[in-house]
Amino acid sequence: MKNSKADNRSHLLRKGDWVVHHQYGPGRVVGREKKLIEGVPLHCYRIETSNSILWLPEDSEFKSRIRPIASPTTMRKAIRILKGPADPMQSAFHKRRQRIRDDSLDGSLISTATLIRDLCGRKGRRSLNENEMRSLQRLSDRFILEWSLSLGLPLEEARQAFNALILEVQAKEP
Q: How far apart are CA 95 and CA 89, in angstroms?
């Protein structure tokens, strides 16, 4: 099996690339720098999100932590999921907390859309606890930013479309 450096270059990030980190959300690669990590000098990508700076070692297997911004096709699929009926969430708060953790760490846009939809559905039927409200806000903000980047919309236009969609869905809920 061929495993040359040239093969690995297809996975390299470039300055200006947008990516989504499973924990920190969308961010932009702003450059590469040498960082001392645990006493070892490593070449790292500097990725800036809305509220963080991430250092991702070049040689790390970063596929498990980041992904590219969703394609327009994937984004439209996620929007269709948001428009669908919410699935009921578990009544036990610790099971809901575990689902939020698991779906958030999954990092896929589809998982995020499904979780937002179901949290909004629960919010319409019952109140959300503090952790659920924070999670819904964080996930929604990340979704809106990715919507904007994926479809090339101004951020405020994506935010307005998202809010209108959520209001429309909530109006249909029994």
A: 9
pLDDT tens digits along 112-166? 999 999 999 999 888 899 999 999 999 999 999 999 999 999 999 999 999 999 9
How distant, in Å, are the alpha carbons of 7, 8, 9 from that of 3?
6, 8, 11
* Rg of the chain taking only CA atoms, in angstroms: 18
CATH class of 12-68: mainly beta
Superfamily holding 72-172:
CarD-like, C-terminal domain (1.20.58.1290)
- Mean pLDDT in the chain? 88
Structure pTM?
0.85
Domain boundaries, the chain: 12-68, 72-172
